[in-house]
């Protein structure tokens, strides 16, 4: 792990994530983007996440999810 930090192995991916967060207006953590369309900011109750997952159609019907 230290080698990855010293080499900057993931710096491009981190910079891409930071740019995407800025574009979405994300200013704090935790922040969750669900289905690329719904955002949940901060520590929320489970009901908030369930609602966002349903809106993102991730809880609507049983199906196989693609790996991240």
Q: Could you explain the architecture of this structure?
A:
The model has no long low-confidence stretch (mean pLDDT 84). The protein is elongated and about 40 Å long. It has helices at 2-7, 11-24, 46-55, and strands at 31-34, 38-41. The chain has one domain. The longest helix has 14 residues, at 11-24. It has 68 residues and is of the alpha+beta class. Strands 1-2 form a two-stranded antiparallel sheet. Helix content is 44%, strand content 12%. It is built from three helices and two strands, in the order H-H-E-E-H. The relative contact order is 0.11.
Topology overview:
Layout: H1 2-7, H2 11-24, E1 31-34, E2 38-41, H3 46-55
Antiparallel strand pairs: 1-2
Overall pLDDT level? 84
As for the number of domains, it is 1
Gyration radius (Cα, Å) is 15 Å
Query: Low-confidence parts lasting 5 or more residues at pLDDT below 50?
Result: none
- Compute the number of helices: 3
Strand order of the largest sheet: 1-2
Q: Report the span from N to C terminus.
A: 21 Å
Globular, elongated, flat, extended or rod-shaped: what is the shape?
elongated
The run of helices and strands is: HHEEH
Main beta sheet strand tally, sense and closure: 2 strands, antiparallel
Estimated share of beta-strand residues: 5-15%
Number of strands: 2
Class by SSE composition: alpha+beta
Q: Could you estimate the helical fraction of the residues in percent?
A: 40-55%
């Amino acid at each position: 792990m230290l080698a990855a930090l010293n080499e900057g192995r993931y710096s491009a991916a981190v910079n891409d994530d930071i740019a995407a967060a800025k574009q979405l207006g994300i200013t704090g953590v935790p922040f969750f983007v669900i289905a690329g369309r719904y955002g949940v900011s901060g520590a929320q109750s489970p009901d908030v996440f369930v609602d966002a997952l349903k809106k993102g159609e991730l809880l609507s019907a049983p199906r196989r999810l693609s790996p991240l």
